[in-house]
Amino acid sequence: MQRLDGGRGAVSWDQSADAWIASQGAHGDFARQYVLDTPMLARVRAFAPRRLLDLGCGEGRFCRRLAGDVEELTGLDPTTTLIARARALGGARFVEGRAERMPFADDSFDMVVSYLTLLDIGEIDAALDEVRRVLRPGGRVLIANLTGFATAANGTCGTWSSRPDGSRDMTVRRYLECRGEMVEWNGVSIENWHRPLSFYMQAFLSRGFTLTHFDEPACTDPAHPKAEAYDNAPYHLMMEWQAR
């Protein structure tokens, strides 16, 4: 999936896939290991779906965490290299495809999980329409996302600055404006989409979803060196919505 980065040429997840795989390792980065995995797994296990779709599964790490908890587990991702890696490691059925045009029948899943993937999707309305289509009535969509103030501090509109003690401050601008911004770290160069929280709330409410859970999870290991800095202003959120 090619996108323009405002002058630096075309980029895609395919070009960053190897760097992404290396950065995640077997257990994922700090946010996945120490902030999101525990509460995300708890919500899946509490609902106990028989058929689950991991939307934007990447190299399949979260699917492998779910193996044994879900009878029919499917991962979907548009990036050939990441799907190949996921298939090589196993743990689920992995399908190459896009969120905006999912290759699944209506009402195929009891739960759809979006684990830090909505911010990667430009055609978000088409993707959310597809989520609603493939989810059975009464099913749930479980989302982990960056907070709006965190994405607003990325790119050209906001800034991060470092203090002498190693902590960081953020400056947020144009929070209410939806926009794509290039972000780079550890050899990964991709476009993330900033959207305010109100966008997501209105998008799900307008599609007939009911909010069943909301959280801004703290670090699950208070002794972790990053815990105090992260918990000052958590930059991840979780939402769970039930389909009508």
From TrEMBL:
<feature type="domain" description="Methyltransferase type 11">
    <location>
        <begin position="53"/>
        <end position="143"/>
    </location>
</feature>
<dbReference type="GO" id="GO:0008757">
    <property type="term" value="F:S-adenosylmethionine-dependent methyltransferase activity"/>
</dbReference>
<dbReference type="GO" id="GO:0032259">
    <property type="term" value="P:methylation"/>
</dbReference>
<dbReference type="Pfam" id="PF08241">
    <property type="entry name" value="Methyltransf_11"/>
</dbReference>
<dbReference type="InterPro" id="IPR013216">
    <property type="entry name" value="Methyltransf_11"/>
</dbReference>
<protein>
    <submittedName>
        <fullName>Class I SAM-dependent methyltransferase</fullName>
    </submittedName>
</protein>
<dbReference type="InterPro" id="IPR050508">
    <property type="entry name" value="Methyltransf_Superfamily"/>
</dbReference>
<keyword id="KW-0808">Transferase</keyword>
<dbReference type="InterPro" id="IPR029063">
    <property type="entry name" value="SAM-dependent_MTases_sf"/>
</dbReference>
<keyword id="KW-0489">Methyltransferase</keyword>
